[in-house]
Amino acid sequence: MGGGLVVTATGGRSTDYNSKPTVYVFVLCLVASSAGALFGYDLGITGGVTSMPNFLEKFFPSTYAKNQEHQALIDGGEIANNPYCTYNDMKLQAFTSTLFLSGLVFAIIANWSTKWYGRRFTMITAGAAFIVGAFLMAFAQNLPMLVVGRAFLGWGVGFANQSAPLYLSEMAPAQLRGALNIGFQMATTLGILVAGLINYGTQHMDKPGQLAGWRLSVGLAIVPALVLFFGGLLLPDTPNGLISRGKVQEGRRVLERVRGTKSVDAEFTDICEAVEVSKAISGKWRALFSKKYRGVLAVSVLIPFFQQFSGINTIMFYAAELFQVLGSGQNSSLLNTVIIGAVNVASTVVAIVMVDRFGRKLLFVEGGIQMLVCFIAVAAIMGASFNTQTGHIANGPAAAIIVFECLFTAGFAWSWGPLGWLVPSEVHSIETRSLGMSIATCSNFLFSFIIGQWYLTMLCSMEYGTYIFFAFWVVMMTLYVIFFLPETKGVPVEEMGFIWRRHWFWKNVIMTPAERAAFEKGDVTATGMTAAEIEGDLPGKASDAAVPQVARLSMAGEYVKPANAPEALGAVNTINTDYKV
Ligand code: BGC
């Protein structure tokens, strides 16, 4: 049944947008994506550096001693420790995880920074924090200096990961939003790969009098940081950011420039209205925790949680350590990391091609099943073939573990990797979108911190069972997607309200019986909210002044024109409301 609902309102005008992609918008998005490259570079550099002997010797001497012992064992010595525990060092893990702890705090601050000072300012600040962090790390003399350096990088990541996806979504023309958003993840995976290659190249730089390889590895983060900082200075802020800070004319000028045309009335008015509506709703924090937003709040918290508890970062952070535990030399451990990094990049391209064609849920479920099978296989092979007495595993099973880790990474890279950032950024209505993105970033960093801080300890105590633990969570997340996540493919962001109100489970949570009845009768706005919801019990209640600006259908389906809608926008459009959930 094709549901043709006649409205002209926030979102319903999207067919009037004049949004042909311009070279300018591609250049802007390329610069903003360098934020993703920085994130990826930081993710990728850590695991490799922490497996380098001269780095360990300087900052983590006890881990270094255990590592030496382990190497001796591989060369035929006697075993003193469980090899699974070689890298079980809280301080070493803190080196990896502090980035996320600090990132978490700064992701919250970024919510205000993007709102008060703009997306552009927040990205430039992220670039500056990265420059300071990379500098401190490259010249670190002791552990505190190293940790402070990581904290600055966390500042950068917190600011960059909250603001850059917002910047991309707001700058991108609607029909390219999905692909450009995944561009951020693409840059992330490229950053991870480049970091792996650099680690591979610098690992042998440890001769006396020579610059230590790890210093070069961590210091090179300065290159994408400079691109983000200086590139950011040349970027304009987004029209949405400018208009919400009262710079309406400047916002319009930027919109005309990025769209390459003067006829941007429809999109311009949508942005103005959306900004008005969002301003009118006070107490956003409270609103987000009310019943009406339960489904989107679940997405903001759970999708990043599941993304991290898939166990991906056991590979991204610590694959080199795992391969050393299993007896590979440092050289081949880092090479394996590079191979996994390349698979990660290539598979992200698959996501870009598939996501708007086959939908989010199909990718999520296929990726989940693939990841499940791979981790069960890794656990089985490790359990059966790794001899903890000799610290050795035969070549065949070792190769099989690498193959399954690659297949796991591929499954993640075309599903939970990009969708873990895309879906939380698109399910929200305008009034909670920015805050929702802050919460999603925080959730991601909190659980990245937990994995970064405890994986090596888990590996020490649960051994190969660690992978069964993650496999359990992969089952949970796949079930969540099947039963509780609506499909968002092809749904304009302003019309997300419909899919939540049609979902078999969430419709009973977010609407009262009376609201459900009104919704079923078609008494809805273009955003899917019932008129009763808008006027009555919207949490934080929209101000009276704002309500008339939201065009809506009356009970009889008659179009109610916003009091101050520009005449040019009088045309009535048809939007498709027959979304499959
Ligand atoms: C995740 C990171 C992960 C990366 C791997 C991102 O989407 O948030 O935690 O390391 O993907 O490509």
Automatic annotation (TrEMBL):
It is found in: Membrane. Residues 28-489 form the Major facilitator superfamily (MFS) profile domain. This is Major facilitator superfamily (MFS) profile domain-containing protein. NCBIfam families: SP (TIGR00879). Keywords: Membrane, Sugar transport, Symport, Transmembrane, Transmembrane helix, Transport. It holds the Pfam family Sugar_tr. It comes from Apatococcus lobatus. Belongs to the major facilitator superfamily. Sugar transporter (TC 2.A.1.1) family. It is a multi-pass membrane protein. It comes from the Eukaryota. GO terms for cellular component: membrane. SUPFAM superfamilies: MFS general substrate transporter. The lineage of its organism: Eukaryota, Viridiplantae, Chlorophyta, core chlorophytes, Trebouxiophyceae. The chain crosses the membrane at residues 23-41, 92-109, 121-141, 147-168, 180-200, 212-235, 296-320, 332-355, 362-386, 398-423, 435-455, 467-486. One of its GO terms (molecular function) is symporter activity. Signal peptide: none annotated.
